[in-house]
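Can't paste images in this forum, so I'm doing it all in text. The chain is below; anyone willing to post the predicted structure tokens underneath?
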Amino acid sequence: MGRRKPTESEGAVLENLASIQQALNPEANIQQYSELLVSELTAQELQIRFPARTAAACYLIACRLREIPIRVTRIADTSAATKSEILTEMQRVSDALDLGIPNDDPTVILEEACEDLSLSADIEVRAQQIAQLGVEAGVTSGVSPYSYAAAVLYLASSAAEPDLSQADIGEQFGVSTASL
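Text version of the structure:
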């Protein structure tokens, strides 16, 4: 069976996907997962109005489904779509394809940040405990997982030597000190 020729809008989405993949260069198979989503959108005849948005949204969905933490802002930086447009399109695509998109997990984000910052195991354990308490208390609802993880790490590291500044932590997580 021969491969069908992509529609014009699908081709534009695939070009945008390749550009995002090249700029971010995470796991190579993310582009393949993204392309499968685009193919399914086309098969279900979902209208693609803005190829850059759809490409960015499919890339984000693929990362989330593969449990690869990535900030929407990183994708937006490599795309013609804004963070808000990507999130709106992600919701539209997710609804159309009936996908359950998992949010980024603050515990995974914390683990990676502690490793990147070469923090002690004690700080990481304390941060994970604080994060879990917050989840149980319901304080994470409506909060960016990156802002939440940044605030937790700031709390956990503030009693340690050397403590990290809000600016250091904000830079690590890509959040403002005001968000922290």
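Residues 170 and 176 are 5 Å apart (CA to CA). The mean pLDDT is 83.
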